[in-house]
Amino acid sequence: MLDILPHDGGIHEIRMARPPVNALDLTLVNALREAIEAAPANGARGIVLSGTQGMFSAGVDVPSLLQRDHAGVGEFWNAFFALCGAIAASPVPTVAAITGHSPAGGAVLALFADYRIMAHGVYKIGLNEVQVGMAVPEPIQFAMRRLVGTHRAERLLVAGAMVDAEQAHAIGLVDELAAVEQVVTRAVLWLGDMLKLPPRAMLATRAIARKDLVDVWGDTNGLLDPSFIDAFFSEETQAVMKALVARLKAR
Q: Domains in the chain: how many in total?
């Protein structure tokens, strides 16, 4: 489910390995949070969060989520928020090595990293939640606005738009593009350059620069509006999601 791969200089790569598309179920979400939180204590000076070539993460495991009752859906989303908060508040720099397509929950995870490197070419990224019948909660919208600005975030989020890698780079949703087989290498090199800087000064400046994000996401207890869970069970959302699952099964 996860591969923990050491790189030179105290860089730890946390690679999602849940075939076929690294869909985020509760087990993977909790494993990711635990790995990110444990990494500094295990000697990590920087973290690379990666997926498999061609697919960073397809987002939330919708078939699994549809099997859960109200309490179970709440448990999943609170765990997902805790994972985002762990990335946001990590005491060491984190790079999202977006190794391929990254819709919905995969794109959300990348929002909280220090830096995002994406595979260029045919790959797409975006918060397409509206297209699958879900609203985007305000704390996630805040993280999106922080990267691309208020108006552009509004247009992308309301439309549930997916954009290709080149457009994502042009609007600031990702910071750098690389060939798919070089994404992790570039992530390690970027982190290596960061870690060559005087550490006290770098980390103190980083903490100031990310304070707005940590102020919102540093403690995710109660951050998720309960109405979001109620909306998941609405007739519209259930119908759209069940149609999505049916299309996936028909492939």
A: 1
